[in-house]
Specification:
2 copies of one chain form a homodimer.
Chain A (H helix, E strand, L loop, with lengths): L2 E7 L12 E7 L7 E10 L4 H4 L17 E11 L9 E7 L3 E5 L4 E2 L16 H14 L6 E5 L6 H10 L3 E6 L2 H10 L4 E4 L5 H8 L4 E6 L3 H8 L2 E9 L13 E3 L2 H7 L2 E4 L9 H14 L6 E5 L4 H8 L7 E5 L7
Parallel strand pairs in A: 8-9, 8-11, 9-10, 11-12, 12-14, 15-16
Antiparallel strand pairs in A: 1-2, 3-4, 3-6, 3-16, 4-5, 5-7
Helix pairs in contact in A: 2-3, 2-8, 5-6
Chain lengths: 338, 338
């Protein structure tokens, strides 16, 4: 192992990212310093929030500079460890790089806790997306049994878990997704009560049937017109957890739409932004619950796997085209694997 | 007393209401039936929310039909009572009519509790607007000492009380109002720490000076671009109480503006709609606190009084032109008073 492929941000995307926004460059395999660990990437996570870091704007995650190596959630194998918690051969997860290899402070890595489920699940149902769903439902929406909970991007990594946790809470669950195939997956595989294909249906109208008693909780992954439509159906004292706004991430300038604050007065509704990192002190609780639910079969999950680090940009861009069902991961095989 | 002047909705306003939207008609003075009370109006409250009832749209308050007598908060004198709780000469308050006289179920009236403050205060600082401010600050914003709280329409009936209660909680209080005179009133008479005249200043820019540590709580009475500007300054975990959207009430069609849900994710902020009626079981608590603060001088208040029932539409329309400082009331002298 002498060289390391890694993606850098070649330029800031305008609108939807394209291949030329990313450069695959070769560098030396880094060396682990004191308390550092060298990790070989096995799975890389691509997530919609990364689009925000490609903008030159301050937000909850620091923007990348042009030329920076892109970062992301990784499951990998320890190659060399100068940290007492890890040794070569361990499987770990952490926020590493779109690269074959990366070094990290060992304190920033954790062993994966997947209870025998696939390792890559540590990036999805048992990782950041699963925890986001858990805290979003449990803490922000906090639905009562019998409530109707609607989730957008329902077939995605977060939405699919949101709906299943809400169902475990005794809720009627309605998922909004972008194809008939995804809607069938929600109902047939994930136990959703109803699904709406926003690419075909008028969402506001379809919700009249799918949520005949109105919407008590809405977990928003998309924003834009789909969210506008859901707001028309909010019940008095409804709760809205805002997790993502993927429909807007590629817009240049400030997206506009109907003003909705008056609806909140009419409905005495609550809208709250959700960032999973705020719940770090409770990650162990979430992981334990999620592992239990997956092991018992109460939560099913699917992954969409793209092979090859070189295809990471395609996998990332595919998120904005709805190409993934469940968690989108990139399986990375080092060129030196053989 | 043989006739009763009363305002009916002549037609639904288009945009800002005008005189021809209202008709002053004469009718017989109504008679009190069993358990009913005949009340002569002394003060009539005009409030921005009434604009919503003039639309043909369902909301928290039922829309008026064209031809309906307009309703509103009234302080009046009991002329005749068939209810055991009241007798002629009592001063009462309730939701009555834009009229010289009205009958009401005695169960829907209450004696005024103003602790020696002016009777009309039962429509303002000690009535619905004061209670709205109380629950909005205490329950929805729930600020900590040292927090910065911003309120829009700060010189109005609700906003002026919001700011003073927040100050009593140890907050830095910034008011946004529509004239230099109002801003001076906020700072000189009501103890606000800073004020912004939105008619002259760029609100987003001015907030940089007025709220240098950002905004922890925002009480929104206006909506629209002023609220957009405040959102730019929200701190992490900020709270927003949405009470009114007066900047939008006269718009035809659906008002549009920049989408703000992503800001809520960035800031993990909470936005909640507020309707004072939901707090009815706790009105006594609010009144007791408010009366105490007014008696001790901790809360100052001002009223803008228009004389004559016939001027009620002008007083109402004036709300949308920022003509009032503090609570806008109409003093009604029956033509039969003499």
């Amino acid at each position: 192992m002498t060289t390391n492929r890694q993606f850098v941000l070649a330029r800031r995307p305008e609108g939807k990212p394209v291949d030329d926004d990313f450069d695959l460059v070769e560098a030396d395999v880094p060396e682990a310093g004191p308390r550092e660990v060298l990790v070989r990437t096995r799975y890389l996570s691509v997530d919609p929030y990364m689009r925000g870091r490609m903008r030159d704007e301050e937000s909850y995650a620091e923007p990348w500079a042009v030329g920076d190596v892109l970062q992301g959630g990784v499951v990998g194998e320890v190659v060399e460890s100068n940290h007492p918690d890890f040794e070569a051969g361990d499987t770990v997860t952490g926020n590493l790089r779109w690269a074959d290899y990366a070094v990290a402070d060992g304190d920033e890595l954790v062993g994966i806790e997947t209870g025998g489920v696939s390792d890559s699940a540590a990036l999805g149902v048992l990782g950041m997306p699963g925890r986001t769903a858990y805290f979003g439902v449990t803490d922000v929406l906090d639905p009562d049994p019998g409530d109707t909970v609607v989730v957008s991007a329902a077939a995605g990594a977060v939405g699919s878990v949101v709906g299943q946790i809400a169902a475990l809470n005794g809720c009627r669950v309605v998922g909004i997704a972008g194809s008939d195939e995804k809607v069938a997956h929600l109902k047939d595989d994930l136990g959703f009560d109803a699904g709406i294909n926003y690419a075909e249906a008028d969402v506001a109208e379809a919700l009249g049937d799918a949520a005949p008693d109105g919407v008590d909780g809405y977990f928003d992954n998309v924003g834009g017109p789909i969210t506008d439509a859901v707001f028309e159906h909010l019940n008095v004292r409804a709760s809205v957890a805002v997790c993502g706004q993927i429909a807007l991430y590629n817009e240049e300038g400030v997206p506009t739409g109907p003003r909705k604050l008056h609806t909140l007065v009419e409905k005495r509704a609550r809208v709250e932004g959700l960032l999973v990192g705020d719940y770090a002190p409770r990650f162990a609780e979430a992981t334990e619950r999620l592992v239990g639910w997956v092991q018992s079969g109460d939560i099913a999950f699917r992954e969409t796997v793209v092979d090859g680090l070189e295809n990471a940009p395609d996998a990332f861009v595919g998120l904005f085209e709805g190409e993934n069902v469940g968690k989108q991961v990139v399986r990375v095989e080092s060129e030196f694997d053989a």
